[in-house]
Amino acid sequence: xxxxxxxxxxxxxxxxxxxxxxxxxxxxxxxxxxxxxxxxxxxxxxxxxxxxxxxxxxxxxxxxxxxxxxxxxxxxxxxxxxxxxxxxxxxxxxxxxxxx
Length: 100
Known about the structure:
alpha+beta, five-stranded antiparallel sheet, CATH 2.40.50
């Protein structure tokens, strides 16, 4: 009768190699953005954000990016970061200047 010890050790070594292989691939990978400055006028305000009219037409900005809701007719300068590579947030807005 043959000993099953070498076979058991080989199986354990294989399991250990799988366990120590580290995490899987990073989902989304690194992202790159193109940054532009946009002067846009508020055309509509809701509880969760505002609609703006800018050089490329209308766009929505959530309240999370605005921090406080602007008034209809107010012009804001926004930093717009548009994704060019990866699968992160596609559009990020930051208020640079409010029409005071």
